Amino acid sequence: MSQVGLDIVNENKMNWLQSMDLSFIFNLLIFLYMNTKGIIMRALDQFRLKTCMDFKTFPNGQVVSIGQNCYIIAIVEHELLHALGFWHEQSRYDRDEYVTIVYENILEGYQNNFNKYSENDTTTLGTPYDCYSVMHYSKDAFTNGNGSTIITKQPEFQDVFGQWLKISSNDVLKLN
Ligand SMILES: [Zn+2]
What we know:
Layout: H1 3-19, H2 22-50, H3 70-83, E1 99-101, E2 150-152, H4 169-175
Antiparallel strand pairs: 1-2
Bound molecules: zinc ion.
Zinc ion binds next to helix 3.
């Protein structure tokens, strides 16, 4: 790119920044921070309410009402469960009794996301296979566009799993 071209790019960037009201940017950042915090607090509350675990909150811990945003809460719960040592539900060694993984529909290079873990390395903690788990992928996870990557053996569960509405009762069982 020529020097002239670079100058034009830089000038456009400056004009865009200058056109933004600084207090607007500041308020936007505060808004994003408070909302993110609210979502995490609610995810932790789900754990606190339904399990014997507890999480420390900040001394001035303010919970901000953010309206229903189940999916984002479930993502936080999902990541927290990973942090606590949980694998994905469809990685259970007994998963083939409940779901079929459609490898030809998986995006090239992402097949290993559907690996199974052996009975020696993992435990189901005696819980049944759980289509409602926040740790279960959705039916179209990593699809290459040719169709679903996970199909349940019981058709009535096909549209249930991967909804990630909230932590399921079996997720809670495994925590306790
Ligand atoms: Zn995950």
